Amino acid sequence: MPDAAEASTQLHVYADAEEVARRVTERFAELARASVAERGSFSVALAGGSTPRMIYELLASEPVRAEDFWTKTHVFFGDERAVPPDHPDSNYRMANEAMLARLSIPPENIHRMRGEGDAAANASLYEDEMRAFFGEVDWPRLDLVMLGMGEDGHTASLFPSTIALREQHAWAAANWVDKLNAWRITLTAPVINHARHVLFVVTGAGKAKAVAAVLEGQREPEQLPARLIQPVGCLEWFLDRAAAGKLK
Ligand code: 6PG
Which of 79, 91, 124, 184 is such that its CA lies 20 to 30 A from the CA of 163? Predict the structure, then answer.
């Protein structure tokens, strides 16, 4: 990773996935309080997959559920599968069951990324929805983007050797993923990179090789998309010891 990026990248390694979830919950609340205090609102793009579920459950539990920032929070999504919101694979469904349905976030502040229907149309609709909130700016400045990472180094739905990796204008993109034989909708790398804070949350030994390749290797982002994520703001990695196991 380029020296400049290393300087602004903070690495946190904890004993296990449960401690990672507790620490990420603390960091989320800290960033939310600061965003509301400084700007009157907190905009966050949630990560999909399975890792964040524990975090979302903690965020919707005492004491964090009682925090004042929830009424000023705007929830976006980093990516979505091409399925309806009640489908078992839906990132929205996971976040809603684990957190959103249990919190007092105004419904109009939950900006679901549509998975059902035409992926390209849904990506365009999502950009419209984001522009309605962030205004006519070149790039939105999300206060926080939470990201997971796959064993192939994908993040959000930016998969190796896929078209969306090169998107430099749209805020959200439809992305055909050959290996899944499926469409995805994803925030684009420039949107993620314009966030004030980006938190990667990666646990488990299965991810250790990819973590080491992303943080210490030289492979091109085309093959390891998480290396595209070099935010203008603060980049933090939250790992358990197993996922950090191959770091020097
Ligand atoms: C998705 C996610 C994706 C996820 C990684 C890790 O829609 O699947 O956005 O980028 O974060 O695939 O997934 P796990 O947490 O399930 O390992």
Answer: 91
